[in-house]
Design a protein that fits this description.
- The protein is of the alpha+beta class.
- Helix content is about 45%, strand content about 20%.
- The chain contains eight helices and eleven strands.
- The strands form four sheets. Strands 1-2-3-5-4 form a five-stranded antiparallel beta sheet, sandwiched between helices. A two-stranded antiparallel sheet has the order 6-7. A two-stranded antiparallel sheet has the order 8-11.
- A hairpin with a 5-residue loop joins strand 2 and strand 3.
């Protein structure tokens, strides 16, 4: 690795470790996150995205889960970007993702080694988002994908993510429910996809409209688990909005509407 490459990587790692006042992350936890996420291969992937001009800088952690971390990035135009990095060290998560990949006709003959699986998982999220957006589903715009890293539109402002439905209740729940039903129909009928893990945790409220995120586990409607996953999504949706006294459509009827003729 050349000195210039090493210096650029070190510069961005220092930016990641820097405490962001808005995000209130503990410095020790942030350092541990950097060590966990940025193995040598991931560092090279991030640098290649920097070198290609996709990214200009990578800042603090926006959200973290057991399978991925999302960082606040910027491009040269100073636009906010979300940089999602899947943790190739997550052995437990590796075991769980195969059921979402196997049976999806879009992803055949997948290699079973850890890095290959996570690369497919990132590609899967990127493709799902693209196909959903083409169907006019409210999801983040895709920017780039490489190995275990996905770059997409940042839903929020200045490194502060838009709140989820779990965090902030909508002012007009009836309207938001109808918008989400419309999005689920478009996802199924036009994109031929089922989200598979829809809940109040992965629906963001931005500019008074819901934005659906976290689509790596989304599957083709041809997947053998698609009907089960659709029922689960609709059940979760109704459960949440029933608590807000919304006059929801019964799940069985709603599923018929979503699937259509």
């Amino acid at each position: 690795m050349s000195r210039k490459v090493r210096e650029r990587l070190e510069y961005n790692e220092k930016r990641i470790e820097r405490r962001d006042k808005m995000l209130h992350h503990d410095r020790a936890n942030e350092r541990a996150t950097v060590e966990e996420v940025f193995d040598q291969a991931t560092r090279l992937v991030v640098f290649s995205l920097l070198n290609a001009g996709v990214l200009y800088e990578v800042n603090g952690v926006v959200s973290s889960g057991k399978e991925a971390r999302v960082y606040w990035g910027k491009n040269r135009a100073d636009d906010d970007l979300a940089v999602k990095i899947y943790l190739t060290s997550s052995a437990e998560f590796k075991k769980g993702i195969l059921k979402y990949i196997e049976g999806d006709p879009r992803f055949k003959n997948v290699r079973r080694d850890t890095r290959s699986l996570f690369a497919v998982w990132a590609q899967k999220e990127f493709r799902n988002l693209e196909e959903a957006r083409q169907a006019k589903v409210s999801v983040p715009k895709t920017i780039a994908v490489k190995s275990n890293v996905v770059v997409m539109e940042f839903i929020g402002k200045n490194g502060e993510s838009a709140p989820s439905l779990k965090e902030v209740l909508p002012e007009n729940p009836e309207r938001v429910y109808k918008l989400l039903v419309t999005n689920i129909k478009r996802l199924y009928q036009k994109a031929k996809l089922v989200h598979g893990d829809l809940s109040e945790y992965n629906i963001l409220m931005w500019k008074n409209k819901p934005v659906i995120i976290d689509m790596s586990q989304s599957v083709s409607i041809e997947h053998p688990m698609s009907n089960f996953m659709l029922t689960r999504d609709l059940t979760n949706l109704n459960r949440f909005f029933n608590k807000l006294n919304v006059n929801t459509i019964p799940v069985e009827e709603l599923q018929k509407q979503v699937v259509g003729k």
